[in-house]
Amino acid sequence: MAMMVPPNPLRLFPTLLLLFTRKIASTSSYSLSDRPTLKYGTAWKKEATSDLVYQAIQSGFRHIDTACQPRHYNEGGVGDGWTAAAKDLNLQRSDLWIQTKFSGLGAHDPNNVPYDVNASLEERVKQSLKKSLENLQTDYIDSWVMHGPEDSWENHFKVWRTMEMFVDEGKVRQLGISNFYRVEDVKFAYEQARIKPKVVQNRFYSDSGHDVEIRKFCQEHDIEYQSFWTLTANPKAYRHPAALELAKTKGLSPEGLFYAFCMAIGITPMDGTTNTQHMKEDIALLNRIRSGEKIFVDSDELAIIGNALGTPNWSIVGDGEEL
Question: How confident is the model at residue 202, as a pLDDT?
């Protein structure tokens, strides 16, 4: 079968916001694969990474996100942080879920690249995973994400086929993609992959129409949509008077209410707080949701946040379903 000519993977396009809900389990006992969840994001934490990861795990986080990209991440600090916390809490490696990323050459500081820049693209991918396993002090990665599009589909699939090999070998449990903002590109990458992506991690903001069509595709194919820049890009959605009043009635901070909103519509937010009290508050929120509490009692309450996102004509899949 002839391969379709794909669209440019680097362009953004505006879409309408589609919100969807996920039934929340009524038990507080859950596995690392259950959703919704919060993932502790470790970008830009530099030398504080180890201590912050330690504090996050102590506070209850069990999902950690990082990248083999020294420009923005201290992957070795993540390894030091989780191992120290696991020792003190008597946790096993299997009690934690660790996600890292392969970052292409253009994403790195030229003076600090974690692989041989003169090696083939496939070899760079292999070296990146080897470095990640060393940094993270583990013999497997729960989720390995392609950090961004390559400059051509040919190179995209050189990276992806190499990543698939490590799933076959058992060193990686699942794969994902990040910074893909056209649904056509997500679909093409999915359709052409032997091992399908289980994660799409994108910036959640108005310039991409809050990824409505991509999130719909993720819902239809059991792909976890992970958001970053979640709070930074959307302050108007959770700081207007009606949202502030709703947050107060729910016993949440405005930021906590927005995380609850994201999880209610099927999004896994990256939570990068550096405040220990906020870590505990966010995990308390997650535990409320896990125990079966409905933070938003109906679609009208959900709309208090949704209508303020700045993307028109948002709606809920399965109108009339219980939130």
Answer: 98
